[in-house]
Amino acid sequence: MEVKKITLYGDTPTCQLGGGVLPECDNPAEYDMPTVYGPWAYLCEEHYQSHTPSGAGAIGTHITWVGDATRTREVGPESFGPHAFGVDVRP
Ligand SMILES: [Zn+2]
């Protein structure tokens, strides 16, 4: 399954998985995906492989972050994920 690729403006966030029972994860987040726990999260490559339910790639997105923090709008009409929509990515 090819994961849909989008581009968002802003600094690359760190992976949101980690903490609690998992070790903290400071890897750069490349994916916006549902997790095995239910909520969507920005995930690094490693946690995308290990902590998303089967089929997640069909509805999640692969995000390329371009570091222009002055803009938060998506690049095109197709270029947003359900989780990313409405999220302010500015630091
Ligand atoms: Zn991670």
Question: Can you put this structure into words, describing what you see?
Answer:
With 91 residues, the chain is of the alpha+beta class. Helices cover 11% and strands 22% of the residues. It contains two helices and four strands. It has a four-stranded mixed β-sheet with strand order 1-4-2-3. A hairpin with a 5-residue loop joins strand 2 and strand 3. The longest helix is centred in the middle third of the chain and has 6 residues, at 45-50. It is flat. It starts with a strand and ends in a 25-residue tail after the last strand. The relative contact order is 0.32. Mean pLDDT is 82; it is low at 85-89. Zinc ion binds next to helix 1.
Number of strands: 4
Give the overall pLDDT as a whole number.
Answer: 82
Helix share, percent: 10-25%
Helix/strand order: EEEHHE
Measured by DSSP, the beta-strand proportion falls in 15-25%
Number of helices: 2
Instruction: Quote the distance from N terminus to C terminus.
Output: 32 Å
Largest sheet strand order: 1-4-2-3
Q: What would you report as the Rg, rounded to the nearest angstrom? A: 13 Å
Helix vs. strand class: alpha+beta
- Weakly predicted, low-confidence segments: 85-89
What are the bound molecules?
A: zinc ion
- The backbone outline, from C-alpha atoms, is flat
> Please, what is the oligomeric state?
single chain
Biggest sheet, in brief?
Answer: 4 strands, mixed
